[in-house]
Write a sequence for this structure.
């Protein structure tokens, strides 16, 4: 493993890439290709099932064998394609009001995340996100077990801090999903509308980060596009299967799955802080 925090460095990787010069050529073996295919399929099956969570499997596993300057642009391209795929399958169901409220603070948060990555210890950001996500997951699971409504509607004004926090955590740590999920579960009770709205929010978020990476030259690496071409059909298949399984989940079970995945995310982030 490349350190407890290295998995989630994004804009920090951009700065490092500019200073490091040419990226070393990667030696591809059959075992590495097989591991990549299996990991990507499992990660994007999770994405198709819940609408987020792919980076928490892809990056920690594959960063042991691939440099982050190579891996993060690949995963970001796959995330962008997966969010387009999930959004396209749910065309017309998204709540456009939530998009209009979350996207401006997302842009601000993305810029702020790049600045905080330089000036604030990353352990603090990981710990804060992990504890908050863990606490909300326990709260949501408690409500579901008690037979209470899945969510208590929150004011739309919460889109401003939620969007900013999602942009910030995505920019600084590479994990934007939890903050958007926490907000949208308090706003949208319909499963199809929830997934469609989340997909469109993530499309915008990933696009902003792709622009940053492209301006830094990370998408000019010679081996990058063959890797994306190899793994993109795998991620599409994983998302497709996950979405088909999700369509058969009852409404209540779907939100229980979301709460459990948030619980896993919170535990994983807290574990990185104390590792």
């Amino acid at each position: 493993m490349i350190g407890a925090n290295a998995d989630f460095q994004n804009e920090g990787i951009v700065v490092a890439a500019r200073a490091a010069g040419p990226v070393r050529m990667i030696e591809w073996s059959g075992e590495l290709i097989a591991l990549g295919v299996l990991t990507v399929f499992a990660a994007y099956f999770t994405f198709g099932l819940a609408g987020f969570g792919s980076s928490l499997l892809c990056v920690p596993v594959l960063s042991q064998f691939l440099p982050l300057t190579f891996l993060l642009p690949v995963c970001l391209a796959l995330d962008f394609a997966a969010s387009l795929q999930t959004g396209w399958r749910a065309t017309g169901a998204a709540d456009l009001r939530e998009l209009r409220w979350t996207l401006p603070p997302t842009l601000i948060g993305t810029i702020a995340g790049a600045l905080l990555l330089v000036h604030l210890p990353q352990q603090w950001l990981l710990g804060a996100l992990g504890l908050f996500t863990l606490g909300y997951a326990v709260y949501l699971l408690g409500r579901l077990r008690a037979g209470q409504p899945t969510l208590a509607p929150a004011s739309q004004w919460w889109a401003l801090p939620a969007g900013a926090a999602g942009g910030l955590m995505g920019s600084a740590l590479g994990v934007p999903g939890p903050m958007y999920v926490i907000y949208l579960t308090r706003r949208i009770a319909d499963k199809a509308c929830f997934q469609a709205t989340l997909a469109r929010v993530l499309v915008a978020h990933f696009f902003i980060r792709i622009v940053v990476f492209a301006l830094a030259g990370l998408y000019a690496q010679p081996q990058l596009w063959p890797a994306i071409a190899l793994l993109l059909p795998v991620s599409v298949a994983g998302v497709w299967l996950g979405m088909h399984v999700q369509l058969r989940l009852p409404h209540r079970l779907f939100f229980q799955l979301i709460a459990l995945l948030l619980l896993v995310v919170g535990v994983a982030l807290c574990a990185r802080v104390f590792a």
Residues 191-215 form the longest helix (25 residues). Confidence is low (pLDDT under 50) at residues 1-23. The chain has one domain: 6-274. The two ends are 11 Å apart (CA to CA).
